[in-house]
Amino acid sequence: MGVTVKTAKEIEILREGGKRLGEILQKVAAEVKPGVSGKMLNDLAETLMREKGDSPSFLGYSPRGAKRAFPAALCVSVNDEVVHGIPNEKEKILREGDIVALDAGLIHKGLFTDSAMTIGVGKIDEGGQNLIDTTKKALAVGIGAVRAGATTGDIGFAIEKFVTSAGSFGIVRDLAGHGVGYSVHEEPLIPNFGKKGEGTALKAGMVIAIEPMLNEGKAAVKIDGDGYTYRTKDGTRSAHFEHTVVVTEKGAEILTKV
Ligand code: MG
Ligand code: MG
């Protein structure tokens, strides 16, 4: 399909879908506490989506090369799990001190938004909080680099520069942000590292998901036997934040913000 620009009418629908998705993630996050299972969070997310007539975009989604479709509405990735953790197969009970990434995609009136956040379960240690705070700021910095005429490389450059200055975190390089709106993943790819002026030029009306993933240790990740769950290779914890934004002449409008 190549890089697409959405119409004003489509952006209006994405704005409503993004707002709904942001609210759902907030409601799911509010239920995160020790003893809660991934399945409970997944079921809540799916129920909240469907009760307003929307549907989960991840459930049944088959990425290229996948042996089976993704089996859940919500990704729940705990501690060393980076992204795409499956919440409803193995029993995944959250424990005090865990950090958990919640990632969901919503289809509203046929159009797709995508958002993620990482939070602590109960009381978490300083390292975990620092990892979460830095990843959240990295997303804000990445969004800050968006405007018509900038490039995907400018976003990656800004994120990489900020993260490097913030400490010794591993920026996951095997996974990236992406265009979104007509489907779960569209062009262009938006790596969380890069060089100024490289990559795809951004145009007003492009809708993109920016999603830094930071590890406490090294950047390398591996995929589990379930075919989806990415983990850090060195076993350190990982955090993930994501917003869907629309590129404007002057900057970015965040669609998935509450
Ligand atoms: Mg996502
Ligand atoms: Mg995404």
From TrEMBL:
Question: Can you provide one Gene Ontology molecular function annotated for this UniProt record?
Answer: metalloaminopeptidase activity
Against InterPro entries, the record matches this protein to: Creatinase/aminopeptidase-like, Pept_M24, Pept_M24_MAP, Pept_M24A_MAP1
Q: What is its EC number?
A: 3.4.11.18
| Protein keywords | Aminopeptidase, Hydrolase, Metal-binding, Protease
The record, for CDD domains, names: MetAP1 (cd01086)
Binding residues annotated for a divalent metal cation 2, in chain numbering:
114, 178, 211, 242
Name the domain of life this protein comes from. Answer: Bacteria
Q: Name one GO biological process term.
A: proteolysis
| Catalysed transformations (reactions) | Release of N-terminal amino acids, preferentially methionine, from peptides and arylamides
Binding positions for substrate? 84, 185
Q: Name one GO cellular component term.
A: cytosol
Enzyme class, one word? Answer: hydrolase
Peptidase M24 domain: from which residue to which, for each copy? 13-249
The cofactor(s) it depends on are:
Co(2+); Zn(2+); Mn(2+); Fe(2+)
Q: How is the cofactor bound?
A: Binds 2 divalent metal cations per subunit. Has a high-affinity and a low affinity metal-binding site. The true nature of the physiological cofactor is under debate. The enzyme is active with cobalt, zinc, manganese or divalent iron ions. Most likely, methionine aminopeptidases function as mononuclear Fe(2+)-metalloproteases under physiological conditions, and the catalytically relevant metal-binding site has been assigned to the histidine-containing high-affinity site.
Residues annotated to bind a divalent metal cation 1: 103, 114, 242
Q: Which PANTHER family match?
A: METHIONINE AMINOPEPTIDASE
Q: What does this protein do?
A: Removes the N-terminal methionine from nascent proteins. The N-terminal methionine is often cleaved when the second residue in the primary sequence is small and uncharged (Met-Ala-, Cys, Gly, Pro, Ser, Thr, or Val). Requires deformylation of the N(alpha)-formylated initiator methionine before it can be hydrolyzed.
Family, similarity comment: Belongs to the peptidase M24A family. Methionine aminopeptidase type 1 subfamily.
Q: Tell me the HAMAP family matching this sequence.
A: MetAP_1 (MF_01974)
What's the subunit arrangement here? Monomer.
Protein known as: Methionine aminopeptidase
